């Protein structure tokens, strides 16, 4: 559930990473891509794209993006193993 994701992000540990999946649009093309979350402010997720798109040409891997919470398709919390 999204509130649990937000709470975990606010209390994140150094060995955790947080990602969301959202649609990105360029004209008639839409592509769902993962981004690494760097912040959550006022119902907007801030982050960097994790990969280069195939059909959307207005963003690329590493692009800093903003996604309204309402557009989030999926989310993921990863604990890094040592």
Name the features:
82 residues, 5-stranded antiparallel beta sheet, globular, 50% strand
Structural summary, described in words:
The protein has 82 residues and is mainly β. The chain has one helix and five strands; from the N terminus they run αβββββ. A five-stranded antiparallel beta sheet has the order 4-3-2-1-5, covered by helices on one side. It is globular.
Topology:
Blueprint: H1 2-10, E1 16-26, E2 29-41, E3 44-49, E4 64-68, E5 74-79
Antiparallel strand pairs: 1-2, 1-5, 2-3, 3-4
What is the arithmetic mean of pLDDT? 95
Low-confidence stretches: none
Order of helices and strands: HEEEEE
Tally of strands: 5
**Structural category:** mainly beta
Short description:
Helix content is 11%, strand content 50%. By secondary structure, it is mainly beta.
């Amino acid at each position: 559930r999204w509130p649990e994701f937000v709470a975990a992000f606010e209390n994140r540990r150094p060995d955790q990473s947080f990602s969301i999946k959202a649609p990105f649009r360029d004209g008639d093309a839409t592509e769902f891509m993962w981004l690494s979350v760097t912040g959550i402010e006022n119902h907007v997720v801030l982050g960097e794209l994790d990969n280069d798109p195939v059909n959307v040409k207005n963003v690329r891997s590493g692009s800093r993006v903003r996604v309204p919470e309402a557009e989030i398709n999926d989310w993921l919390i990863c604990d890094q193993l040592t």
